[in-house]
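As a warm-up, study this chain.
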Amino acid sequence: MSDSYDSLTPEQQLYSRAMFRSKIYQSDGQRYQDLFVEVMTLRDVRFRPVKPQGQKGDQGNDGYIPEDGKYFQVYAPEDAKSKIATAAKKAKDDFGKLKKHWEKDAPITDYRFVHNDKFKGSFPDIEHELAKIKKTHSLTVSKAFLAKDLEAEFCKLRKSEMEAVLQAVIPRAHDIADIDFGVLTDVLQHLVENQQPVDHEAMNSAPEFYEKIEFNDIKSTTPLLTVGSYQNAAVEQFFNQHGEFTKTDIRNRLSESYESSKHMVAEQDSSHLAVGDCVFFDLLHNIAPDNTRAVQDATIVLIAYFFEKCDVFEEPLR
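Now compare it with the structure written out below.
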């Protein structure tokens, strides 16, 4: 598709996602439901929004795809954390309404409880209730539909459709190339605030990890990468909350920074440090010019994560 998300430049992708996230953060209640309906209507021509009808209401259905037996119920209070019990009860009660009023029209196989977590993640009470619904009613799917899921649907739209949702034109790449929308800042802040306890399972003993360290001529910074890898769970937690598109953005930025650091070191005079260590420190400075200890530690965790995933530094020849 010539005007798909993938056809946009990295700068345009980041811009469109940043603007859409702004809409998500600003949307509660009916505003969020309207945003959800707008995106889903553009995404799938089969999606049918359902409006409340007088005293009958919407009968537990804010929108559905009858051909797939897929139903959506939206709940987006301003302060989701204070409404956890209410949300779990609503998920249960609204499914009961669906069974009563809609099952005969289009059998329910897929139930999505839509709530605006604002990229913070779902709550256990909601997850347990949805799992119970799935088991009790033998559904194929019963799960939360979070902000990251709505963002994923938005990113599957055509460029013109994205612009309609954003109510703005996506600028040309050269007009936005120097704008930093904070994608790296967000993940580093998360890592600063969410250090995970280390246990023996988190300690990296994979021979491939140390083989890659040796292959890249990494010497004195080996302990930094090793200890940084102990916090992989904190990085995964962030990506689970923010979705695959954020992970791809950050991976691409680190990969580009690594290539820049590698060429920079290659052009410099010899150093008392091993080549791999020089590349590591240059990469660290590029990603985190703020030299405070907490930010540097968080950056090392991020580098270690993508080092292990083979997105930065060279993969040993097999």
